[in-house]
Each structure stands twice: as C-alpha cells, then as structure tokens.
Amino acid sequence: MSPEPKRTTPSLKSVVTKGKKLLRIRPRGFCAGVVRAVDIVELAVEAYGPPVYVHHEIVHNRYVVEQLRRRGAIFVESVQDVPIGAVLIFSAHGVPPTVRDEAHLRKLRVIDATCPLVTKVHLEALRFAREGRTIILIGHKDHQEIVGTSGEAPEQTVVVDSVDAVNRLKVDDPARLAYLTQTTLSLYDTNEIVARLRERFPQIAGPASDDICYATQNRQEAVEQVAREVQLMLWSDRRTARIQIAWSKSLSARVLRRG
Prior knowledge:
alpha/beta; Cobalt-precorrin-4 Transmethylase, domain 1; Rossmann fold; four-stranded parallel beta sheet; three-stranded parallel beta sheet; disordered C terminus
C-alpha cells in the first residue's frame, strides 16, 4: 500500500445528468492509515477465523463497519467484553495505555491497527511529559484519538477545541507548555488555535512536524477549491471537518445515508 503524497492537486471528474452537472472530487475516500486498519481486520478474520474483536469501530464509516461485522468482526467499547485469550484489534484511532494493560491482563492476542501518524503523536506526548511540560492537546475530548493520546499523560494534558478555550486557559507555568493536535481536525481551525496559543504563550513547544494528516489536509483543500464552483455538496455517511469548510463558505452541504 503506497502512502498518499504529502500534497496533491485537487481535480474534478464531471457527469452530466438531467441537465445537472455532478462533480466528483479527487482526492476523496479513505487515507492510507484507514485502508491499512480495515485490511488488518479482514486479514485477522481470515487468519484466526471469526469472531475477531475490535476495540471501538475501526473507522468512522458505518458501511465499512457493517461489512466487517458480517464477516465476523465484533466491535466493543470495553476490553472486559472480550473473552479471555481472544483476538483483539486496536482501531486506527489508537488507545490509551490503560487499555493495553487490560488486554495484557486478559491474555488477549493483540493486533495493533493504530494509524502510524497517531502513534507519532502518542510518542510526542510521552516526550513532552518526560520534559515536565503541560500538554495542550487540540481536539475533541470525546473523540477516540484524543482519549488515547491524553491517556499517555492524563495528569499533564489539557484538551482545547477552540480559540475561546485557549483564551480561558489557565496554566501553572507558561514556560513549560507544549501543544499537540488531533490528526483529523480541520487544518484551518487548527491553525487559528495554534496561532492563539503562540500569542498567549510565546515559549510553548510544538511537534517537529505538522500532525494534521496529509490525506485530511488534501481533502480539505480540495473541498475549499471546489466550494467556489458549486451550489451544493453531498457527503456519504458522516459530518466531518470537510463539511464544516463547506458551511464556512456559505455553501449548502448534505449528508447522504442509506436506509
């Protein structure tokens, strides 16, 4: 599986039907990390036979999740729901150390499908924690990725999701701060939050490179470009940061769901 290039040029393929033009945006679809995670579940079912347990839904796409269920995957929110000795797969979003410890105690056969970029963020959190810094983690506190990352140093991590949250932030030592980001956030919102953090706390440390997923960034930039040319955007399955970009351009956006 080849990783997606860091930057891609958005492109369109048009289909004309009943006098209306439908544009299909490229790039679209899953990133390499998600494809990898789905492949891991499918290979595990083939290798070990069903059932194979997965901690949390492997990806945020209910159609894929339903297909994997039919093949023999069982999605759980707690390790306690997995029989002792069974196969357990960690989802692409990653897990906190407590989940790994619980899996070890139950003697589970663990397969880690965590996205490599998410693993990078976990390692950065550990490094900042060892340096004695308070970690400002930019993201949605209930998102599985944030749950996993903050679990690396829960006593030293504060989650913020907006510029307003940064404005309200109170810290013990402004000279001992670092920030990290959820990998799938809107690039535009993240940039605003990071800029405000640097204004308030000039000495704040950050990751050596951008933690926003390149595939996410490529798709967001494609949406921004296409938003100038269309009247309506259609999404399959879920609301995402890309829909928020469309809305920010005063563009109508709808989510399509089966059934």
